Amino acid sequence: VTVTVSLGEGSQGDSWTFSIYNDGYDPATGMPIASARELYDTFFGETASRSLTRNFYLSADIALGEYANWQGIPKGFTGHFDGKGHTISGLDVDVVESSGSQGYGFFLGLSENAVVENLKLEGNVKYQVFMADAINNGVSNGVAALAQSMSGGIIRNVLIDVDVQTNAEFNAPVVAHMTGGQILNSISLGSMSGIDGAPVVAPGDRPGWAPFTFGAFAGKIDSASCSVTGCYALGAPSANLGFTNRADGSGEIGGVQNSGFKTEEELKTGTDIYADYDTNIWNIVSGEIPSLKVQA
Length: 296
What we know:
By secondary structure, the protein is mainly beta.
């Protein structure tokens, strides 16, 4: 919209013309995102400063392509990100940090009132911290596929098929570090390992590039206000790999209900475990791992 303002009668005839920019955002419906370029421009372009509080939905599957080494949507997202059953694929993150202070996630931080739902995420995340710095500086970072940190809000109906390799602290395929919020009716098919397949180990036994404080679903739950309900991770627990946090549960004080490890067979045939899953959102078919339905 272009507006021209002129001085009144008796003036020198001076006038000013300026434009009011309308980016098409409608808070009632949210803004559609249909490509990797649109996704990038939304959170790192001219409107980025407004995007952390806005509502968005995917109107197509998105292959990240040239944006595969995704840098992470900045911390403080309080909006609504609805995948509408679509998939973001091609996440291929390979980062080496000297300090490890930031950590990694597709979202770097979800805050109060944030909603991320109805989304499938596919790819690989490899995040390395120089071991000397990690030990000497006591860094407190976290690495996950979906969200590096979560202090509030809701994640629901997400399917994460991302393998995570890291030697950082607070690690998991879905959320690295929870201090608030809820995760509901979601599935992780990804794996957790040290760099180049190094085994996960306890904090006191860190040879090479081994991670610590990790989980197969959420890396660390650090508040009684957190909850994880109706969520499953493909795999089985090991001596130092639990569903959330370490296998011994140390530091885990949030509520984990009706959730845990499942074998591939259990994910395919245990249709009773999906009793609270919305069949308008999920395809629940015996013999298949659940998938998300694309919504109009």
